[in-house]
Design brief:
This protein is mainly alpha-helical. The chain folds into two domains: 81 residues; 50 residues. Helix content is 71%, strand content 0%. It contains six helices and no strands. α2 packs antiparallel against α3 and α5 packs antiparallel against α6. It is globular, with a radius of gyration of 18 Å. The relative contact order is 0.11.
Length: 133
């Protein structure tokens, strides 16, 4: 259980977890870039998949470290265990946004207009960012 003082400190602390954001961003990049590039026949980017568990583990350890030091984390991992329905909500929203953008936008942009997977992803990024807010 997180001490009440730690929770109050995190609520008033306005610092952004830049290191956590970079580690999570690198994990996602190492996962998505090879998937997008493999369509074009490039096999070398598949090496980046090795970075996914490394950066994900580093992210989790960093977030735990921030909580121990009573700093605000990018993602409070205690929510995954302590808040009923949080994990289910994440899964439902992930499935919704994956299916919705995949069905409506990706098919049209890639099949209808002939855009590459990378170009389609870049075009849909503002939609994903705005939807996440």
């Amino acid at each position: 259980m997180v001490p009440r003082r730690a929770i109050e400190n995190r609520e008033t602390d306005a610092r952004i977890d830049v290191v956590g954001a970079l580690l999570l961003g690198l994990a996602v990049l190492c996962l998505l870039y090879p998937v997008v590039r493999v369509e074009s026949g490039a096999r070398l980017p598949l090496v980046l998949l090795v970075g996914v568990p490394l950066f994900a583990l580093a992210f989790v350890r960093w977030e735990h470290r921030l909580v121990r030091r009573e700093h605000p984390p990018l993602l409070d991992l205690t929510l995954l265990r302590g808040l009923p329905g949080y994990v289910n909500g994440l899964l439902v929203s992930t499935l919704y946004f994956t299916g919705y953008t995949g069905l409506v936008h990706v098919v049209y942009l890639q099949e209808g207009l002939g855009y590459s997977a990378l170009r389609t992803g870049l075009l849909l990024m503002p939609f994903a960012v705005r939807s996440a807010r």
